[in-house]
Write a structure and sequence with these properties.
420 residues; 49% helix; alpha+beta; 14 strands; 18 helices; 5-stranded mixed β-sheet; 4-stranded mixed β-sheet
């Protein structure tokens, strides 16, 4: 009765429980045998039934029962092929384990699920498995090469870099895809941010998927933009509006800093104190300001008209991004804004104007679908959390495996097991 009950609990096909023991450390050691009386010849592939003894004993760790480890002992049967000339023998393999794996497939899938948002050390301690064995499971199911067959479409690609070490060292490039349903998938992690590396990867995307790419979101790094243009053409490039905003907001902030230094030199300490906290208010959107905060800003603008001009120019460009414009309308509005900037005589905006003229096409592509790199930045945040949780993760393959589980979780585990 106990054996039959264990067979139900183990939920493994083609086995019969022969004996149950408990080890000194509390684990259940269960001896099982195969109920199948045939296998496929490893050479000719035909079904063979001539028994030829047994192979060596295997010990496989299975899912725990009642909080105890479960160790399955199995001696695989061997069969001899009567069809091949030299009558080779073949060891029978059951579908619930992999050759040379110390775990059953059920435990391997459970271990992968546990690796989502946990360190490998924590998983090893909880599941009582060896660290090297767990890494072997990751290497088998989470392949380094991109499985293009798992993609039906790409739609939107996101490209951004992240430093694996502090001080902007060991840059890797994250390639992500946002699907039409809004879900985000990790495509791959490239070892560096050189144009040649990215261009080589993009050009190897299968044609059936390459033609589904509607847009590629990126920052203004020339290496990325050059590779995208070479493979897809300039019409798919969408330069992230928030990367653009950082540049023109920095330009406006530079005007404020220069004027604040001047006021500090020219005014008394008491008079200058009236402008305390103005730098925070200057950065807020006008709609978010309270009446008292508006008064502080007005005081600053009265003392430094150049700051008011920079403030209005900055907010004016943000308003253009917020309006539901077509690309052609956006180009005209941007050109009019650049004319305003030049008329203002504010030198702090000169560098941004040059950048805007060079990248105007990619920046205004935003108005076609109003896409940004927000989903890419979300992935970057997860990547940084992952590296902190693991106290550094500098092996590219390990980083890619862990990031895939971090982003897609159980969906990635199910897809990998279905592929195997």
């Amino acid at each position: 009765m106990l054996e039959r009950a264990l067979e139900e609990l183990l939920a493994l096909p083609h086995i019969r429980v022969m004996k149950v023991e408990q080890t000194t450390d509390g684990a259940y050691r269960i001896t099982v045998e195969s109920t199948l009386s045939s296998t496929k010849c490893r050479r000719c592939g035909r079904t063979i039934t001539t028994s030829h003894g047994h192979d060596e004993w295997l010990t496989l760790q299975h899912l725990p029962l009642l909080g105890h480890r479960v160790l399955l002992r199995l001696r695989p049967r061997r069969f001899q092929c009567p069809y091949c000339g030299d009558k080779p023998t073949t060891t029978q393999e059951l579908p619930w384990y992999r050759p040379r794996s110390p775990f059953t497939k059920a435990l391997e899938e459970d271990l992968l699920r546990q690796c989502v948002r946990q360190t490998l050390v924590d998983v090893c301690l909880r599941a009582e498995v060896a660290y090297d064995a767990l890494e072997g499971v990751l290497d088998h199911y989470l392949q380094a090469a991109v499985d293009w067959s798992s993609f039906r479409r790409i739609d939107t690609l996101g490209i951004d870099e992240i430093a694996l070490r502090k001080g902007h060292r060991d840059y890797v490039v994250l390639i992500t895809s946002r699907q039409a349903d809004g879900s985000v998938r990790l495509v791959t992690v490239l070892p560096n941010r050189e144009r040649a590396t990215l261009e080589r990867f993009l050009s190897h995307i299968p044609y059936r998927l390459r033609r589904t790419v509607v847009e590629v979101c990126s920052d203004m790094y020339e290496g990325f933009l050059g590779a995208i243009k070479a493979v897809f053409g300039p019409e798919v490039i969408v330069i992230d509006r928030f990367h653009v905003a950082r540049h023109y907001r920095d330009a406006a902030d530079e005007v404020r800093k220069q004027e604040m230094k001047r006021l500090k030199r020219e005014r008394s300490k008491a008079s200058y104190q009236l402008l305390k906290g103005a730098h925070w208010l200057f950065r807020k959107r006008p709609s978010e300001l309270r009446p008292a905060e508006r008064e502080v800003l007005e005081c600053l603008f009265a003392a430094a008209p150049a700051v008011k001009t920079a403030y209005e120019l900055r907010n004016g460009l943000t308003a253009i991004f917020d309006e539901p414009l077509s690309k052609a309308e956006a180009v005209r509005r941007f050109q009019a804004w650049m004319t305003q900037v030049r008329a203002s005589g504010l030198a702090a905006f000169e560098r941004f104007l040059g950048l805007l003229e060079r990248q105007l096409d990619g920046i205004t592509n935003y108005f076609r679908y109003r896409s940004s790199s927000g989903f890419v930045e979300g992935i970057n945040t997860k990547a940084r959390v992952l590296t902190r949780r693991c106290f550094g993760l500098f092996n590219l393959r390990r980083f890619s495996q862990r990031l895939l589980l971090e982003i897609e979780g159980r969906a990635a585990v199910q897809r990998c097991f279905a592929a195997h």
